[in-house]
Amino acid sequence: MSSKERMQRYKDKIYNGILDAAMEILKTEGCESLSVRKIADKIEYSVPVIYSYFLNKEAVLIELSRKGFTKLITCIEKSLKGLISPEERMEAMLSTLIEFAHKEKELNQLMYSVGVHVIDVEETFPVLKVISDLFRKELNDLKAGEIISEDSFRSTYLTFLSIAHRLVAVNHYYKNIDPAINSIVLKKTVHAILQPIDA
Q1: Could you tell me the domains of the chain?
Q2: Which of 42, 89, 142, 199 pairs as cysteine with 21 (C-beta 3.0–4.6 A)?
Q3: Residue-by-residue pLDDT tens, the chain, 199 positions
């Protein structure tokens, strides 16, 4: 291994260590408690070392969010394996959004809050287009290969996201909801929303 490769491996180790430490602080103490100083203390490096990798705390949070969206996409793609019916696939995608929000509560909250501080969320998080493209494919398949209008797609996509996020909020509030009830709600919702899709 060349000295250049060793140096890159060393830099990658520090970079990943910063993000791992930030994630641990996020999960144990919450986003408000996260600071560059705490990250530095946790990985036993100086604050200037952290700043040599990230401009500020916000940059760390944005990178954690990017990783979160990438992880979410992996979960969605895994949930779609073996499913053929577009309605089943749509239900699986929404169900995965909800399950992810429960399993990765702090990260999920960060993913959908850090974006409000950026000018163009889709430019900052290009991975969001992957998620919307997955939805677009299922909607197009429901129309037997016809391409639905952009307005129709956008309104339906935002409706799905809104339902998923509100169902997450309801589940956080009513902590004893049976998962089977969530499944029934999703089935009814997907069926109702997909019926009136117009090109």
Answers
A1: 1-54 (1.10.10.60), 61-194 (1.10.357.10)
A2: 42
A3: 788 888 889 899 999 999 999 999 999 998 888 999 999 999 999 999 999 999 999 999 999 999 999 999 999 999 999 998 888 888 898 889 989 998 999 999 999 888 777 788 888 888 889 989 988 888 887 777 677 788 888 888 888 888 888 888 888 888 788 888 878 888 887 777 777 555 4
Tokens coding 159: 């409706």
